[in-house]
Amino acid sequence: MPALISVETAVERIKTHLPDWGEESVDLEQVRSGILAEPITADRAYPAAHRIMMDGIALAWESYNHDQRAFKILGTIAAGEPKRTLTDPLACYEIMTGAVLPDGCDVVIPYEDIQISSEGELRIAEIVHDQAWQRMANIHPQGSDFNLSEVLLRPGVVLNGPAWGILASVGKAQVIIKRLPRIQITATGQELIPVHQPPQPHQVRISNPYALKASLISHGFPDVDLDYVADDPELMTAHFQQQTVNYDLLIYCGGVSKGKFDYLPTVWSQAGVKNYIHGVAQRPGKPLWFGVDHMHQTAVFGLPGNPVSSLVCLHRYILQQRPMFAQLTTDFEFTKPLTYFLPVQSHVSSDARILATPHPMKNSGDFMALAPTDGFVELPADRAIFKAGESFPFFPW
Ligand SMILES: Nc1nc2c(c(=O)[nH]1)N[C@H]1C(S)=C(S)[C@@H](COP(=O)(O)OP(=O)(O)OC[C@H]3O[C@@H](n4cnc5c(N)ncnc54)[C@H](O)[C@@H]3O)O[C@H]1N2
Ligand code: MOO
Ligand SMILES: [Mg+2]
């Protein structure tokens, strides 16, 4: 293993060398998570016409302003009808939320403030609660949200609920997004057995791939397959050569440290993968390996096999989460010159601070210690004492 690099250098190298997996067009009907890859502009003014905001009556504000309070009702206008015209300023239309304001009208009085009476065919709306309405009250003016061609969403935004609603509103039936990587997670290790088999004392059930896949899915990477390869350089080489063609991101766990059976770094190098990281000054996760098979545009991560190490490395380096900040609730000490990823249980205080209670694990194989936690904080390498009340980057699971 070469000299250890810092967490910041590792993050920078990944950012620099991670392949660009291009773009793809998705159908609006396939709504899913993703990153927008094109600018989205307003296809017309929003709203496209003066839009009614309250069910009630539409009339000429000048008449109201001249103290007229009773208006003959000429008809009823629903949302979805083309624009009408009020020619008699002493009259009004009943009108519904979402309808287009008729020409000749410039105020809407809600039903709550009027009374309607009938004399034969004639129907009269009388304003009974006067709220000193201004011109255009209860009307959402044309173009008051956005003008034609204004940029609504920029490339790079995360497609969340509001974004998909905007895409639908502007008629984007097809949208260009960043292509998500096809991901395979491969477990390695002679000691591993499938989950449904009873383990002997020298065996452990394969658990890392399930934890990693769950985190990938919950952070917007749905396309994840699982696999296993034995600790055998020939099998590992064959596995890599086959899978680098099928996937964009190959995540292996285990087999990247200094052991006699940690073959993967050699296997990858001999298969032409350019190595950018092997060893980061951090705990857990020190033996982290990262490289790129430039011929196939495949990113290759070797996550250290200890379960807490692989999960922390996935979150810190592959998911590229933007951290929040959280305050420690108790003092914590870690004296080695390594960045320390400390599992924490978080909660939000009544004054809107995220509080992080440390749940240190005994070692990086102690996966069960993560049960009460919901993420980890990153404690810098150049300090040993971390005080209650201090804030640090917080990465939720
Ligand atoms: N001489 C040294 N030894 C070790 C060093 C070192 O710097 N010098 N680093 C240690 C650290 S730190 C870690 S972390 C581990 C990482 O080792 P590997 O990536 O080679 O992982 P393995 O040896 O294959 O496994 C380690 C441990 O994790 C368990 N494991 C692996 N895969 C799974 C899985 N899919 N599900 C559940 N558990 C898994 C495995 O059984 C081992 O117990 O190396 C240290 N050694
Ligand atoms: O860093 Mo290893 O990940 O301590 O167990
Ligand atoms: Mg090992």
Automatic annotation (TrEMBL):
Catalyzes the insertion of molybdate into adenylated molybdopterin with the concomitant release of AMP. It comes from Pseudocalidococcus azoricus BACA0444. The keyword Membrane does not apply. Pathway: Cofactor biosynthesis; molybdopterin biosynthesis. This is Molybdopterin molybdenumtransferase. Residues 184-325 form the MoaB/Mog domain. GO terms for molecular function: metal ion binding; molybdopterin molybdotransferase activity. InterPro entries: MoaB/Mog-like_dom_sf, MoaB/Mog_dom, MoCF_biosynth_CS, MoeA-like, MoeA_C_domain_IV, MoeA_C_domain_IV_sf, MoeA_linker/N, MoeA_linker/N_sf. One of its GO terms (biological process) is Mo-molybdopterin cofactor biosynthetic process.
